[in-house]
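tool_call: predict_structure(chain=1)
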Amino acid sequence: MERFIELGQEMALLWDNYKGSFFLGSGYLGGIRNTLVLAVVATLIGCIIGFACGVLNTIPCAKNDPPVKRFLVKLIRVIVRVYVEVFRGTPMVLQAVFIYYGLPYFWDVQWPSVWAAAIVVVSINTGAYMAESVRGGIISIDPGQTEGAKAIGMTHVQTMTNVILPQAIRNILPQIGNNFIINIKDTSVMFVITFAEFFAFHRYIVGVNNMYFPSAAIEMIGYLTMTLIASILLRWMERRMDGSSNYELVQDDALTMTAGTYNFPNKGTPFDERSKEYRERKRQELKHGRSRGDR
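tool_result:
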């Protein structure tokens, strides 16, 4: 128990000395700010990339289509597949090294800032995962809805934007939230390109005072707090998109017909339910049955 008390005291000492400022971007609070901003921006850009790749990867292509269209569709699918497999199959830390240091190595071009490089790395990585999630969300929609949209003359773009994607977004919303939480944690590898996120401040503080475990405990609590808050917000968004669980039928619509409230017009014909001839014939049918000629 004494060790836990000592750990708490050391954590309080570190926090008091190195908490920094959230708005100035210094200390632990500054690292939290940089981590959240990078995760939010990169997740949004990654979702755009993923939606673009997912839609392009589901473009219909039939054998009777022009050869140029079939060639372009197959080329797009190959490019998307290579992109997805490369960025899903390699660690983000190596992707950051290749993108940040590889660009000046092969071309005489420098990144405008480490922020730009970090956003590009995390966005491209997120887009690779989102591409498969979007593709799965699109193909999970009943094909009959696509056929119905085409039957009323909608183009592929109109079908996607008005029918398929609104439903696919709800289906893949948990995966979007999962990628956002992963980005909160995986931005910790951006220290390899000198990006000052939460974990980078931990490395700096440990190098100054050599209190590794108390600082790591602060990092653990900080990351856990950020991910828990993100999970709560995402659950709230899912419930908002689901709508109300109770639905009531509209009763004040002029076109609503309920039992006992609709009156047939009296046209004065033998087939009118309010005519005497109709009621008498029905009574005879119930009493004696319908004749073969009536059938």
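agent: Residues 257-295 form one domain. Proceeding to next step.
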